[in-house]
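Task card 7
Instruction: Convert sequence to structure tokens.
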Amino acid sequence: QRHFGLRQLSAEAMSSWFAVMEHKLWVRPWETPPNQNNRVLGSGAEKLGIPIDAIRRNVKGCWNLGYCGMGCPTNAKQSMLLTAIPAALNRGATLYTRLRAERLRFSGGRISALDCMALRPDGIHPSGKRVQLRARHFVSAAGAIGSPALLLRSGVPDPHRLLGKRTFLHPVVISSALMPERVDAYAGAPQTLYSDFFLQQAAIDGPLGFKLETPPLHPVLYATTLQG
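Output:
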């Protein structure tokens, strides 16, 4: 807001939009007691006098299995697969799968078509068959990496040379310890407690601090952080 003059995008101005999306995505307070991993975080924060709160979760009928990071096996997590995509299909949208967007085509200063590559059944390797889609309007919703990549490949006009230049990542630092009691971090919802205390107090690297949460620690996920 200070640097770009976007005063209309304040938290207060956006709150009603957040409320609408939270309703659609079923974001609700999580009433189930935290698993042991989160209880350790809560206990440590309490002893240090650090405020801690419960994470609101976008789940419906959650079985508390703890497989969130690998794809919910019961479809309790209200992802786009269960919310936005069905809503669009119910309103007449057509869903094409195993189709990779490669390049936007221009005609008369407007985007006129999208060149795509059909993929093999594995959804990864190209089949060699090309498809071109035409529409009155195009929306690029491929995330912080996919959208800039598509726009750059397409040669979209970029007079300020900002495409792909302002990518913000989500760095995570994990610390672990040997505990006196057994902690099955893989059992139960993986992240249900958090603290924003260090976002607002004693920031060590400028205006932004850090958030405290527990990592989702299924054995296979934890193994990726180890050497050897």
